[in-house]
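Bug #77: duplicate submission created two jobs. Keeping one. Sequence:
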Amino acid sequence: MRRKNWNKEMIIKENWAIKEEFNIWRNNIKFMYDLMIIKALEWPYLTIQWLLERDESGRIMSSRSSFWGHICSRARYMPQTPNMIATKLVNPNVYVFDISKHPTEADLMLTGHTAEGFSLSWSNFKHGHLLSEIHAEDGVQDVAWHLKTKHIFGLVCEDKYMHICDVRKPANIVSTQSILAHKNAVTNLAFNPHNEWIEAIDGPAELLFIHIGQTSIISYFWWSFSEDCMVASVAKDNVLQIWEMDDHIYSGEEDKEDENNVSKKEEAA
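Kept job's structure:
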């Protein structure tokens, strides 16, 4: 009985702390963000992606957790042919749909995996080149082709590391570089389409910004194609957020202004 009461008290305290942190964050949105949009969704969504339009503006593609009669853990459109969408359901296969013809029937079923997984990524350079991984093999949570270098891809795992891989290397070399990215298992990875040195994961090694607006576990996030630091993220409590950090945070303009002010004061002294 004491253990049950103790667990209940811990949950109450944790929920209170989350609520308190969220209230502080909400009161400071105007100082941290150039844009913040919050939308409560009707259904749980496990995956999200920006769609690139011909005018280079963006719109959101999200996939309900129940899709085509099955639980859909990941959906990704082919950059060269956006109507072709690859999905991962609750089985080892990957299904590719041409939604312009028959969105409820798969055109292709790709086999070869022995267990279900979450990771899918189309190459921006090679038409029809799809990267896929399964969780059971080595705890892989997500994979992503690099958007500027065609032979590089990244993957994140339960081992808390982000691994950078080169397809030109022998198959027995797992990665060319490994970075400790988080104190817990890393679940998501997305390279910034505007800056090849920036990637978003659920706990970066070199921390630039922490978004704490979502109080539930984030299912997925994606960089915008049209804005440098705009991100769409969806959480397990069905809340979709589109946010862009204040440009002073990543441009360093505020730091330069502070340095200039300090220099002027020193000269005056």
